[in-house]
User: What shape does this take?
Amino acid sequence: MCAHRSSTSLSVISLALLALTAAPAVLAQECTDCHDDVVVAEGSVHEIFGCSDCHSDLSAEEFPHPDDRLAGDLICSQCHDAGEALGTSVHADLAGCTDCHGAPHEILSLDDRRSAMSPLGQPQACATCHGDAVAEAYAASVHGVALIRYGLAEIAPSCSSCHGAHDILPASDPASRTSWSQVADTCGSCHSYLLETWATASAHGAAWKNGDPEAPVCVTCHTSHEVVRTQTRARRLTVPDQCGNCHGERYTSYRDNFHGQVTDLGYAVAANCADCHTPHQNLPATDPRSSIHPDHLVATCGTCHEESSARFVTFDPHSEPSDPRRSRPAVHWTWLLMTSLLFGVFGFFGLHDLLWLQRSLVGWTRGELGGHPRPKLEGPWIRRFRELHIWVHATVVVTFLVLAATGLPLKFHTTEWAHTLMSIPGGVGLARVAHRTAAVLTFGYAFVHLGFLIHRVVRKGDRGLLWGWRSMVPQLRDARDLWAHLQWFLYLGPRPRFGRWTYWEKFDYFAVFWGVAIIGLSGLMLWLPGLFTLFLPGWVLNVAHVIHSDEALLATGFIFLFHFFHSHLRPESFPLDPVVFTGRVPLERFKEERPDEYERLVAAGELESYLVDPPSPGRMRFAYVFGFTALTVGLLLAVGILVGLAVH
Assistant: This one.
């Protein structure tokens, strides 16, 4: 104290009497004579006390006060008995009372929202040591939103609700409220019904009660500070990954089937693990209480599929076609057949086209092949295709590219390009609309083509479309042409003479013809499962999935790699053959590429009827713009396929 002492005895006596009757107030006044910067905050829990109530060990005559006697938690322990709990807690040697509660003269009631230890204040107070990331995660969680945004302090948990107050222990300590053995009860103090269900009617809870250290508890699935609403899009998309941390094999089979593919691409509507197995009552299929028990499967699947039936639920959402132990024989054998077909076609045409490429390059350097730069719009031209065929082919190109762009991402859903491509139309939902629209148009041109064939063969009696030189049906000559072509590739014979249709053109044609039927039917089954399971078992949908997926890969891979080479990218046609978009080809090129066809027309006196004017400049511009666009998109998708196969 720095006030002048009174020299009169009256002053001394007066001060003594005041000290006896109102010591706190008098001493507080005397203290502020020197400590005028100390202000007890309004509403502080200590404002009713005087200085000596806390600093009782200080002598009124001892000036100045030793600094070490003004510090330490021993002062707090005079009134508060939290010291023992704090001494054994994780904070024992790391934090004192004022580190958490604030400056001693500003400590507020826990009910005061300004208090550092009020429910609202705790996240930021704890963040001073535990980092802003923890506070931000909590603030974004359902607990933080309920407390901070909606002010539900009576029910929303704050830090101390889960971790405790003065007796906080590390999660590794079995006695800690957040330890593996205790956290379920901690969460259950609020979520009592879920705790009861989980502990008594789930495989996870049973394993936990039996002491299995691998058993998942609340924070295993929900995490600790990032707890979010389970029905948010972001949360639904993470469920399979979390379950996959323990259930690796089932995770893989889920991801490789439709539900998992579209979920991986951001389609949160699709069923995830919790939708079928339930989150807190997950039991094995053998348990009569389980949601996937045979007695309950129709109802479980029916939450999404109104058409669910006993046939429908024989579909296996975890089918692994490559493993005969984890799939039905029909599914496994279908996978073997499709895989063999893929390897066979890709292997044969891969070797075939590589041999062709090297032979054409050698022929070009030798001057054997002149190549065909952009044709001049002059001289006689030959009509190759009718206008109907041109526009049907243009429709084929557009629909095929749309189907490929919206379907291949499912096949290669683990790649980055698949996610990027699927985001272009606005996600899986809109991509499904585009895919199905293109599928309907595909059926449309298929029926138009079938109608054309039936009209020509049945109505007009044109049997030449079924057999002969004008037919697309493979014949013995095609085998001879293939053999002669292979000999030319290997420098063992001359270049063969081709007629109206070559063997590779016939293969290209039937690849589409076959593909539309096979991919189309299997796609319809996946699109309308309820309709087809009215008379077929649900496991046929697993077969359809294998066929649709692998046949689509076969079709897209063949078109983008081999058909593009046959028609446009080989040296004889590079960089683009516009004939399919103009329907016409220069006579000189026709004579070179189709010598047998040319001689037949001349011998039959029909050549004149096939001569036409060159295509208009506008038609040529359309051919090149449309053609190069389609080539670019197709080749980019081909690169995506190769990348997907490399990382799959």
